[in-house]
Amino acid sequence: MNIAENLYVAIDYRLTLASGEEIDSSPAGEPLGFVTGSGQIIPGLEKALFGMKTGESSKITVEPEEAYGPLNQELVQEISRDQFPADENLEPGMTFQAQGPQGPIMITVTEVKDDGTVTIDMNHPLAGKQLIFDIKVVEVRKPNNEELAQLAGGCGCGCGSGEQNDSSCGCGTGDQKSCGSGCDCS
Fold this sequence. Notes:
five-stranded antiparallel sheet; single chain
């Protein structure tokens, strides 16, 4: 069976940047499983998988626009040091979680200035980066009732979790009742 819309797919993967730095990989014997069309993986990877079948391997390069987007300079801001806990010794590279309009967001400290300001970056850590996946398709099949129920419970598009909530999120039927309260999937 070839990978197509609305199928359960499991892949072993290794994710690296163009520099060769490994970012993530599936643990041995624990492939990443998802239902296509549900917004559970980045669009560029999903598109590249379509047509593949169990046992096939591929090296897939995904550009930022099909992954976590380009860097958005509007998400790099200077804020007052007093926006952080007073006892926190701030250093570049530290990350904090904050509540955004669509749920939690990660904030990375990029600079701490002597004038009492802190430069933060609210872009996804992989925004603006080309992603390289070495994948092997482990399984392709119709999703079972449990996998479909998980999608209906959370819609599979990150409703209320700060993830992508647009027409590509694949809420499926357009019946937002299945997405749960507060879902703004269209």
